[in-house]
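Each lists sequence, tokenised fold; shown next:
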Amino acid sequence: MKCLLLIDLQNGFCPGGNLGVAGGDEVIPVANRLMAEGGYELIVASQDWHPADHGSFASNHPGMKPFEMGELGGKPQMLWPDHCVEYTDDAALHPGLDQSKIAYVQRKGTNRLVDSYSAFRDNDRTAHTGLADFLNRHGVTQLDIGGLATDYCVQASAIDAVEMLPGVRVRYVEDLSRGIDPATIAAAEKAMAAAGVKTVTSDEILREARGV
């Protein structure tokens, strides 16, 4: 079972969003083409879905500003602008994304007391989202991952997939992803490779699907 996991392709992470990633909207056509022509038997997506009082928001820490390091749950926490607040347009999947092909959307970041970069579990690594169980029930043997942002949610999801889905081949789709900072993107790609995640491009995937 070949599965594509789209990470947080939401308005909030695209240009014009509350936490926009440069070029984030450029991956939407790549996602649509992979969904249409990549030979996937299952397509799933993750969606940041925060309460307005989420502890990762700088606005909920008096005197702190976005992109400063604060604390959440007794651990260091990057403080973000308010983003992807549940039921807002900022949290919606990008309107250009062909959602008709997405079988399941896993929401994350719903607990105000802990952040959730990974689509599989919270950052404290104790509470699981249930996505791993869903993929196991469907017999997934290959998982291709890409989305926003490479150096945070994509990296965390790919590395967790290796650990939580034993025996599943996990690949990071480079041109389906955009990140925040070149240095942390490079570090994320190195960390994913060290965890056993292979890097591929959409062109490679499409050639595989065509048997070329």
Summary: The radius of gyration is 16 Å. The longest strand covers residues 42-48. Residues 150-164 form the longest helix (15 residues). DSSP finds five helices and eight strands in the chain.
